[in-house]
Structures are given as C-alpha cells and as structure tokens.
Amino acid sequence: MEGIADLGGTTGWGPVRPPRRDEPVFPERWNARAFALTLLAIRVSGRNVDAFRHALERLDRNAYLDDGYFGRWLNAAELMLTDSAILAPGAVTARARVLRGEQIPEPPAPKPRKPDYKPTAEGSLRTVDAPAAFAVGERVRAKNMSPTGHTRLAGYVRGHAGVVAAVQPAALLPDTHAHFLGENPQYVYTVCFDSRELWPSGSGTDSRPFKLTVELYESYLEQDS
Amino acid sequence: MTSDDSTPSAALRTEALEQLLVERGLVDPAVVDGIINTYEADIGPLNGAKVVAKAWSDPDYRRRLLEDGTAALGELGFIGTQGEHIVVVENTDKTHNVVVCTLCSCYPWPVLGLPPSWYKDPAYRARVVREPRAVLSEMGLDLDDDVEIIVRDSTSEVRWLVLPQRPAGTEGLTEEQLVPLVTRDAMVGVAKVAAP
Fold first, then answer.
1. What is the rounded distance in angstroms from the CA atom of residue A111 to the CA atom of residue A88?
2. Does B16 fall in a domain?
3. What's the CATH number where A180 sits?
4. Domain that holds residue B164
5. d(CA B140, CA B94)
6. A79: part of which helix (H) or strand (E)?
7. A 71-130 near B (Cβ less than 8 A)
8. Does B137 belong to an annotated binding site?
9. Which domain holds residue A6?
10. How far does Cα A136 stand from its chain's mean position?
11. Could you give the number of structural domains in chain B?
C-alpha cells in the first residue's frame, strides 16, 4: 500500500540519531503499556501480525509520526479494535477526555464483528509441495505492482532486477493473510541488488556502490530475461 | 469544567485504552505487566552477546551459527516471537553487513530484545538503504573505502543478526570475559566491537 510507512529511500528526514548507551527499552511508562496492549489487541480483535502491520500502514501521517514508534502502535491497536467493532470509533479519545476531567458522553460498546479468520498453524512458516520457482544465482525482477492493500514489496525495489542470493523457507503471504483472504504459502527469496540499479547517483545516495538484500515473496517476482 | 479542544496525549489515550479493555474483561492488567517485564528484564541484547562470545570462542559453534542461525540460537534457548527464522551474517575485513526494516522496524527480538529508538526512526529506515556509508559515519562508524557494504532490509519474517569481528587484543579473554564487550549496535551493524 502506498503511504507514509514505506520509507525506504525517501528523503527529507534529516540526520540519524546516534546510539545512546543504556537507552531504556521503554523511555516513558506509557510506551510499555502501549506496546503490551497492542500485542494483546491483535488477539482481542481476532486479527494477525500482518493485519497489524497493515493497520500501521493505514495511519495518516500525523498518526504515524507524531508520537513516535509507540504512538503509532497505540493508534494501530485502536484501529484494529474499531475495525473489529470491539471498541466504538472515538471511544479511546472520549475516555481520555473523561480522564482529564471533561464531562462528555462516551459512545456505547458496539456489537463485536471480528473477521472470519483462524490461523492454520503457529507462526508464518509453511510447507509447499511445488518446488521453488527460482534458484540461487538466477536473475529476477521485482514486479512493478502496487497493491491497494498490504504488501511487503517495498516501493523502492519495484521494477528492479537483482540476483537470488538464497531461497528462504516458504511462508504464508502477508498480502492475503492481512486481509483474511488465505495463506497462499510460497517460497521467499533473498534477492541481492546493486545500489546503482536502485538509486540515481547524486545527493542522498552513497557515491560508492554497495549491495542491498531484501526478502521477496515468490509472487512479487518474475524472471529477468 | 473548561473545555479543552486539544487531542488528549498518547499517555492519556494509552491509559484510556487499557481501562476500556480491562473493564470489559478483554485484557488482564497482570498479563500486560508480564509482557512488559519480559522485554525489560528477560529478553535483551545480552542474549546476542552470549551468542557472539560463544561463536568467537568455539569455531564449531561459529560454523553452525552461520549455517543455520535459528538452530544454533535455539541451542542456547533464544527462540520465540519474531525469531522464527534467523540468518546470521559475519562482518569481515572486506564485508560489512548492516540491518534495517524499512517497512516497519522488524528486529530479531529473541536474541536482541526490542529495537532501540534510532532503528525505528524514519531517518534510519529511509536512509540506510540509500546511503549506508554516510549513515554509518553519522552514527560514528567510518569504514575503509575497500570494505563492501551489504544492507539487509528485513521485509519478510526472516530476521538478520550480524556476527561482528572479534577485536584484536582479546585473544586471551575467556568466553565469559568477551560477553560484556559485545554491544547491540555491533550486532545490528552500526558499530564495531571495541577491545577493552
């Protein structure tokens, strides 16, 4: 899905933050609560990790950025819970206002509407009968596609060619799993790209070439003739 | 009551969310506490430091670690959420690996714990796949021109762990003595391990 979350190669972000020694895992208390509540919200809303990542992707710019990593987790948790009608839209904000002393009505709890979904096994790895379509050393091209829903095909890789560096274990496909449309298990490939294939020379790009690998699901790839 | 049009803070909204879920019996606050405790106390980069120290001290473990990371980490009990399939790559004089997740912040939790703030920032996620040498320099690591950089973008459930080089001058140290030298930053690839 096109959106703020697909950050690879985007510009204008300024300098990186140098590592700090002994940085706390949760700098503020609410970070810790938000983190744990979000993990639980995936199960309470009857969803899965891929649907959670898609909830993050659907946040608008402010909801994604303004309160940092844990802020976007909190917002994605709320989105999953309202999508599944566990919470009413606006319920969290209304309760927060009440907590700071405002006298406002809170929306009633809706009737839950969880997705028709159950995982077939733990985790994401699966077995497939068909052999892997591509082999180590083979040249492949990432399809120039941009699904409206969830995908793990990063925008900066679309349409570019690289070499299969490894065939990873088959796994369920996030693109359909996030929408409860099936697991579609398939092989995953570590594809190695030359930086000169991906990036224009000039500002914002290292002058010395480098290599970059990404994992790409089989349905993201085609042979590069 | 004065009315306040500002959106409540993330802290207040988190409290609100927890209240709403707990009062409906959907979440147990003790379970919330337990998850927090796990990632504050039990699972962190010390796990990875033990793996690296062992790999430096035991050539056969090193070989197993590079051949099948998940299994070798499993030997030490470092399995779990976000660690279904972990690949370990070694940094050498000629090759430097650095890890990122541009799409969200995926990270090998069982062996390194939760990611540090810089890893999750848009600046790192956006820039390290495009100008890794400049990013590493900003973070304090300057690599020689003849070192090849390989950036690993974690776009699937495969997770990446860097096996950093053992620093010169540590030949006499025991495995136990090596553990505190190994930093989280070195296992992501934005730093090297320094000798004591």
1. 9
2. yes
3. 2.30.30.50
4. 10-188
5. 19
6. helix A68-83
7. 71, 74, 77-78, 81, 86-87, 91-103, 109, 123-125
8. no
9. 1-113
10. 26
11. 1
Same domain, yes or no, for A102 and A147?
no
B101 catalytic per annotation:
yes
Contacting residues of B for A190, CB less than 8 Å apart: 87, 158
Domains in chain A, number: 2
**For residues B22 and A184, what is the distance between their CA atoms, to the nearest angstrom?**
36
Query: Distance of CA A82 to CAs A87, A89, A111, A120, A177, Å?
Result: 5, 6, 11, 25, 19
Question: Would you say the ipTM is above 0.85?
Answer: yes
The response to whether B101 counts as a known ligand-binding position is yes
Query: How far is A187 from chain B, CA to nearest CA, in Å?
Result: 11
Q: What is the pLDDT along chain A (225 residues), one digit of tens a residue?
A: 899 999 999 999 999 989 998 899 999 999 999 999 999 999 999 999 999 999 999 999 999 999 999 999 999 999 999 999 999 999 999 999 999 999 999 999 999 999 999 999 999 999 999 999 999 999 999 999 999 999 999 999 999 999 999 999 999 999 999 999 999 999 999 999 999 999 998 878 888 999 999 999 999 999 997
B6 has catalytic annotation: no
Domain membership of residue A127 (yes or no) is no
B57 is catalytic: no
Which residue is catalytic, options B9, B104, B117, B156? B104
Helix, strand, coil shares, percent, chain A, to 5: 30, 15, 55
B156 is in an annotated binding site: no
Answer yes or no: is A181 within a domain.
Answer: yes
Cβ-proximal residues to B168 (8 Å cutoff; 6+ apart), any chain: B195
Q: Are residues A104 and A143 in the same domain?
A: no
Residue B3: pLDDT band with limits 50, 70, 90? low
Contact assignment for B15 to A92 by CB distance below 8 Å: no
B50: in domain: yes
Judgement on whether residues A12 and A92 belong to the same structural domain of the protein: yes
**Is residue A169 domain-shared with residue A211, that is, in the same domain?**
yes
CATH number at residue B180: 3.90.330.10
**pTM (two decimals):** 0.97
Q: Is residue B193 part of a domain?
A: no
